[in-house]
Amino acid sequence: MLSVLDYELQNAVADRFDATIDAPGGRSELARNLRIYRDIMLKTDGQLPQQTAVNNSSAAIAKKDPAVYAWRYSRKMAIGISRTHSTVFSFYDNAGEDFATPDKAMSQLYLGAASGVILLLDPFGFPANRGRADARGASLPETGPEAVLDAITLVLRTAKRVKRNGRIKEPIAVVISKIDAFFDDIPPDHPVRRPSSSRPFFDETESRTVHDHIGAMVEQWGGGSLIRKLDNNYASFRLFGASALGAEPEYSSGRVSSRGLLPHRVAEPLLWLMATRNFIPMTGA
């Protein structure tokens, strides 16, 4: 997902906002690997990269470099003039198993400095989807969606010193990955199945429609408790459906579909976070 997002940011998203989005000061190991993984997926054999490795020690976490990006663009203001906007943001990449227990989760110190979180959840981890995963030969995540959310919530509440009855102020984008595996359950003309907009703003009305539909799907999958936990612990959260590949891979062999890479709504969670900070314009709010 991050490999495809890296490419989308510097191409489709940059074109959409007439922006420059690049990696200043060289490329970290993570940023470099994201390019390597994408090149491998694009080759004839289309091999998928391995899942994110688990951090087994605090030393490994401390040495882990983020992928850093600088985004700069000219934003048209209401009175007809343009003003340059710029920001710097970064991604860390953690496996769900890094949040399998409170002790492991509390070692992810970078979360204390995060101004927003993108939580990627495997839909096959929900109870109602395990049979679908078995039928496709897809592996099941070792740590369930609720356990990951509980651990991240604990870290953020502790780091941000949120009162027991308070809510975490930092927004969290919860992304249901592999959404292409569920397209048969979604109307063809629904925003969840439509590609991302090419217009230079974040469409809040469309995003809320996607949020409501994904929420209903999660409820059907047995994830009602997860939705309630988000509602009770976060002042602002949004649900997304995305697919890095855009077409189901050959799960057993770990290879990209013969159709190639067809990213689907991969950048929307980040764009929402940018819109909540008023860095990019939002319509329909």
Indicate the topology:
Layout: H1 2-16, E1 19-22, H2 29-42, H3 58-62, E2 67-76, E3 82-91, H4 102-106, E4 117-121, H5 130-136, H6 145-159, E5 172-176, E6 202-203, H7 204-220, H8 224-233, E7 237-241, H9 268-276, E8 282-283
Parallel strand pairs: 4-5, 5-7, 6-8
Antiparallel strand pairs: 1-2, 2-3
Helix pairs in contact: 1-2, 6-8, 7-8
Beta-strand percent range: 15-25%
Please give the largest β-sheet. Answer: 3 strands, antiparallel
Let me know the average pLDDT.
85
Total strands = 8
Quaternary state of the chains: single chain
Which spans of ≥5 residues are poorly predicted at pLDDT below 50?
A: 57-62
Which class do the helix and strand fractions yield?
alpha/beta
Q: How many individual domains?
A: 1
Q: What is the alpha-carbon Rg in Å?
A: 19 Å
Q: Helicity, in percent?
A: 25-40%
Biggest sheet strand line-up: 1-2-3
Shape: globular
* Termini Cα gap: 28 Å
Element-level helix/strand string? HEHHEEHEHHEEHHEHE
Number of helices: 9
Describe this structure as you would to a colleague.
By secondary structure, the chain is of the alpha/beta class. It has one domain (2-283). 34% of the residues lie in helices and 15% in strands. The protein has helices spanning 2-16, 29-42, 58-62, 102-106, 130-136, 145-159, 204-220, 224-233, 268-276, and strands at residues 19-22, 67-76, 82-91, 117-121, 172-176, 202-203, 237-241, 282-283. The strands form three sheets. A three-stranded antiparallel sheet has the order 1-2-3. A three-stranded parallel sheet has the order 4-5-7. Strand 2 and strand 3 form a beta hairpin. The radius of gyration is 19 Å and the shape is globular.
